[in-house]
């Protein structure tokens, strides 16, 4: 097995638009409404040009042209309602599940059934191609998740850890071994096909209707109930933020081409756009029926929205001449550039051409070279020596923990080689993303060198700095706890005062009614006298 370089954890990538969101999304023209044969449960654009659209409705997969928006083909090879029509990354194959418990792979050009996978015992609502292109994963109402091998037509991974319907799923494009599924059992599970087990389990408050991985493979968006929640996968599924701008269940999620905007469709008839840098809603549009699916073309010229009424809306954005010129300028090959010299690299020769196998070796970082040789101490010295980013150093420390080599990397050091480690720990131990790991590193250092640390003046100074930083952090937490307690007391006092005011008003009202009733009774009992 080839050595894999240390993968540094990355935060979600966000892109700022030069044009305000409201103005940008209003450029999509008035929608063209297309009536289908049933509820439009799934929409997806092809990743390959011209970005055709597949619409899953009733017992059909309808393919619409990415250039004209007109119907091109219909795949009607289903005996029961179809679900989750999805393209492969090259746009040449389609996969879909159906109510008859089957998973089928189709050729887009000929519409022929290439593979049929049997094994589920209930309807299949989730199907996706894995990044390897030779595998498909599926999720079913029988609570199982399966990965199918297309050439052998057999399952290579099966799990029944979910306890309710599996209705959503997504792949991680930057990690071909991972994929995520969401279930009505109020959980999201991230699966690792290498370990054949669930790697991370995330609990939420409502049934999960949609999951979506954000660029960077470290953040996962989850639609459950009327909210969209963001979770940090690199921190074991820690919640980051919750966006609750919808009034009813969110049913569908999709990203723009830059990964900086999240589109969410809901049963409250709205599609809302969120800025992933601020997690704030920047635009909202209303539709005539509850929304079941949302899709945006990779070139951001078409926006499709499917509804429960069996109608899907297709909006087109007119591209200005200036924007078109910018796109063409990017695509134009300039002499002397790498793109110019790499032209034709993807050309496929004829069947009778002589093929020479060439495998280009990837250069490894210096610390990865030492890791490959199991020289953990030298790998740690190398990553600390060149002023690398904190995330890179933390990623290496995490890798050492996974290899059970942290103790070996930290042992056998003098004060000079221990100095950069203590400086890094003292600098970043208060960072929320690094605290847990660096506390573990500190404990290992104290266990190994606890009796010798005070023999060095430099080491003692660094330990004092670390102790002061931890004390300041604890003092800040105590102050925040006191502040939260004071706020709770104020809120409780306000609620009690409000209740007393309401009770006094009710007592006064009751007293006034009683007085009026008594007056009426007295007037009716008192006899009238004639003069």
Describe, in plain words, how this protein is organized in 3D:
This protein has 531 residues and is an alpha+beta fold. 29% of the residues lie in helices and 31% in strands. The protein has helices spanning 21-25, 321-331, 338-341, 366-372, 376-385, 390-402, 406-410, 415-428, 435-449, 457-525, and strands at 32-35, 40-45, 53-57, 60-64, 71-75, 82-87, 93-98, 102-107, 113-118, 124-129, 135-140, 145-149, 154-159, 166-171, 178-183, 187-192, 197-203, 208-213, 219-224, 227-232, 238-243, 250-255, 261-266, 270-275, 280-286, 291-296, 302-307, 311-316. The strands form seven sheets. The chain has a four-stranded antiparallel sheet, with no helix packed on it. A four-stranded antiparallel sheet has the order 2-3-4-5, with no helix packed on it. Strands 6-7-8-9 form a four-stranded antiparallel sheet, with no helix packed on it. Strand 12 and strand 13 form a beta hairpin. Helix 4 runs antiparallel to helix 5 and helix 8 packs parallel to helix 10. The termini are far apart. Mean pLDDT is 83; it is low at 14-19.
Mean pLDDT: 83
Q: How many strands?
A: 28
Share of helical residues: 25-40%
Instruction: Figure out the total of helices.
Output: 10
| Main structural class | alpha+beta
Over all CA atoms, what is the radius of gyration? 31 Å
Question: Any low-confidence stretches, pLDDT <50, length ≥5?
Answer: 14-19
SS strand fraction: 25-35%
Strand order of the largest sheet: 1-28-27-26
End-to-end gap: 120 Å
How would you describe the shape?
globular
Sheet bearing the most strands, described? 4 strands, antiparallel
